Amino acid sequence: MPNFPRLMIAGTHSGAGKTTVATAIMAMLSASGMRVQPYKVGPDYIDPGFHQVATGRISRNLDTFFLGEDGIKEVFTRSAMGADISIIEGVMGLYDGIGSTDEGSSARVARLLQCPVVLVMDARSMARSAAAVVWGYANLPGGIPLAGVILNRVGSPRHLAILTEAIECKTGVPVLGGILRDHELHLPERHLGLVPSVENSDWPKIMQMLGRRVACGVSGERLVNLARSAPGLEARQQIFAVEPGTTVQLGIIRDKAFNFYYQDGLDLLAAMGAELAQCSALKDRSLPGELDGLYIGGGFPEMFMEQLSANTTFIDDLRRRVAGGMPVYAECGGLMYLCDTVTDFTGRRLKGAGILPAHCRMEKKRAALGYVEAKSLRDNVLVNNGAELRGHEFHYSTVTGEGLIPAFTLRKPGGAVGRPDGHACNNVLATYLHIHFAGLPLAARGLLNSCARYSRLKKKVKI
User: Fold this and answer.
1) pLDDT tens by residue, 267-320
2) Which of 169, 216, 279, 332 does the annotation list as catalytic?
3) Domain 6-228 matches domain 248-462 at the CATH topology level
4) Is-catalytic flag, 339?
């Protein structure tokens, strides 16, 4: 049975510092010469970008809601091949999942992968009470054992000594190190969370600094030894056991404005026969070559709307191809971009691509967050009418327009009440729904089938 040294860095709660600590550990181990494969529990797009900067390897999402138990194992083992160690960053608090269940939680993923868990705890303003917190996490009925604790935002070496003695004496859980409070030891944030790594060319230097800071307080050798204690793990290939279909050229808009994609989803599209052609709506004057379809992922178009609007040659080419029948699938930020107009956070009304008969507006408060179950209201470029999908949404914008034709009804998992979402008309599907193609092979195949039909149509027209 294959052996994959692995370790999960989880947190007591959101804001405990697990992303900073996990990414710094990845950077520290990478600097030591190890090949580190990073992962993120849950649907987050932004944290994996920091992981990639820290390790030089593409981070993968491990989400039980999207992938299921077998899918988690397959995605993990497939990408851990060739790595010396795998570091998995958790999501929210260790036991937080959907509602009061463990669906989607870090604990569930750790149990599936038989993965040692290190808990990051914000130790500010705590002493002996820290032991009670650790004891609770280690002894929750139905919970998982803790391999160790890393204390974050410690006030001083004496504070660390007090915390260590209390935790180890009262709980038996080893303290693997402590990180002194440092206002520079954090990652910048904005309305959807952390600022993506693609927007700052200084991130490699910042990651090196984070790795050095954490190495001063946390033993890399102890972490590696814990990771190597994980048992062997194997998985049967199911998601990627596919036969390639007709070869199609699928465009992917990927730049600072649009960079929310799941790599395993892109890998599955490629395995099914897609040749992926990346382009930029910010810099390129047109779409690539003879595309058979276009996938526009999410991101932060609202932060670059002036530049996107100014690239009129790219927009003209996009509009021409859409009018000619090219399939387009746009998620969240992609939906926003396709609108006639977009009002940004400052109140400026800017031109969008003008493909959807709608106006997008950035709101002061979050409009939606969380996992959803979707049902297709009509045939579209992904699925047929009535198909059911799983996804998530996270946005501060709203889209309105009398000409919109809703694509889906969305409801919370297990909920009874749904609400309309998106727009589906002919060869265009635009939605706030983010999906993971590796968890929805039917949708992946559906997109490529739409591309293949368009490809055949183009050839007939040329003849």
Assistant:
1) 999 999 999 999 999 999 999 999 999 999 999 999 999 999 999 999 999 999
2) 332
3) yes
4) no
